[in-house]
Specification:
By secondary structure, this protein is mainly α. The chain has 4 domains: about 5-100, Orthogonal Bundle (Arc Repressor Mutant, subunit A); about 105-145, Arc Repressor Mutant, subunit A (Orthogonal Bundle), CATH 1.10.10; about 150-200, Arc Repressor Mutant, subunit A (Orthogonal Bundle); about 210-265, no CATH class. The chain contains 13 helices and 3 strands; from the N terminus they run βββααααααααααααα. The chain has helices spanning about 25-30, 45-65, 75-80, 85-100, 105-120, 125-135, 140-145, 150-165, 175-185, 190-200, 205-225, 230-245, 250-260; strands spanning about 5-10, 15-20, 20-25. A 3-stranded antiparallel beta sheet has the order 1-2-3. The model is unreliable at about 260-265 (pLDDT under 50).
Length: about 270
């Protein structure tokens, strides 16, 4: 087939007009196959040109994606699959970018850790889990997470506990401790260290303050439950709700005794 003409496009692209079709090619493809000096192409040669051009397209797409921030190999692979690139082109691209230094899972892991430390309150276990989701090797993760030592983890835990105590004053002490404990575990901090630090705090129970919280909570519960339950069943459900909310049994009984909740009247 004959090459009719070339038309230079933006971003290093060419439109090549043949007898019965037009193809858009990268300048790398034009140069590799010396197309500017040719007048005709065999069908098999055109297929090779298209195949090579698709590899270049995959590579260019990757470079643009990597220009935004560091990526893991796994992240790039998933991204390229969204655009229906063939596996062989994806593998070649990842290999080339790795050799050129654009892709490096260790550098990605270091940058990822630094970002999480600076912008989040995630513990080392959560960060490890997220790095594993990027298919970063265990060896790299172990090496990189060495920066997140016990002292730093302890500082993070203490900071979270202090903030939680200040911002959750409406919780009874027992419930507050439980809430803080579960929150720290969910954030990926070591269970043993969390327990040790929480137990080092003196969560003093201000009984009168707790009782005021209980009364306020009880009023809301009664308003909701009294529409459906009466007498003994109402009392039983009230006690259960207050207990599950973290209030001490002694304070619950005190509220019952001081109110119109004498069980003998039911």
């Amino acid at each position: 087939m004959n090459i009719v003409k070339f038309k230079k496009l933006k971003n290093g692209m060419y439109e090549v007009e043949l007898d019965d079709e037009k193809v858009i090619l990268y300048d790398e493809t034009i140069l590799k196959f010396n197309l500017l000096t040719k007048k005709t192409l065999e069908k098999t040669e055109l297929e090779k040109i298209k195949t090579f051009n698709e590899e270049i397209k995959c590579y260019k797409k990757s470079l643009k994606y990597l220009s935004l921030r560091l990526r893991s190999k796994n992240e790039l692979e998933k991204y390229l699959k969204r655009f229906k690139f063939e596996n062989k082109d994806i593998k070649k691209t990842i290999k080339r970018l790795t050799e050129e230094g654009y892709l490096n899972d260790k550098n990605f892991a270091i940058a990822y850790l630094n970002t999480q430390l600076a912008l989040t309150n995630k513990g080392p276990l959560k960060i490890k889990e997220e790095l594993l989701s990027h298919e970063i090797s265990e060896d790299i993760i172990f090496e990189v997470l060495a920066k997140y030592d016990k002292n730093l983890e302890k500082e993070k835990i203490i900071s979270i506990i202090d903030k939680s105590i200040k911002t959750n004053k409406s919780f009874p002490v027992y419930k507050l401790k439980e809430k803080i404990f579960l929150n720290l575990l969910n954030k990926g901090f070591s269970k043993d260290l969390v327990e040790t630090i929480i137990n080092s705090y003196d969560f003093l129970v201000d009984e009168e303050k707790e009782y005021k919280l209980l009364k306020k909570k009880a009023e809301k519960i009664l308003k909701r439950l009294s529409k459906k339950y009466k007498s003994y069943e109402l009392l039983k459900r009230l006690k259960t709700s207050l207990y599950n909310s973290g209030f001490q049994v002694e304070l619950i009984n005190r509220f019952i005794e001081e109110g119109d909740f004498n069980e003998k009247s039911f």
